[in-house]
Amino acid sequence: QVQFVESGGGLVQPGGSLRLSCVVSGSIFRIVAMGWYRQTPGKQRELVASITSSGSANYVDSVKGRFTISRDNAKNTVYLQMNSLKPEDTAVYFCNVFGILRTWGQGTQVSVSS
What we know:
The protein has strands at residues 3-7, 10-12, 18-25, 34-39, 46-51, 57-59, 67-72, 77-82, 91-97, 108-112. The protein is an all-beta fold. Strand 5 and strand 6 (57-59) form a beta hairpin.
């Protein structure tokens, strides 16, 4: 069974940075694409960024140039470096397998406010 443990969220001022981490249990990590998703109250969860098993990344337009997704296959960990944060980035952030979703983890709260 695949499990996700997200961490690294917090409260940051606009323009600040955070680095999220997600440790993934299970042997499939090295062969699957991974994604970072976010959800705000009353809205559907949205895909923010994805990365293939070989490291090719894609981003939603609203975070291009500000967020960077990366992975360390030796550590079964996927990261999301978030720079130039905006209030509209406030959300609970989750990681999951890209395209074939598994049971969600608890997520990590990111709050951007002055």
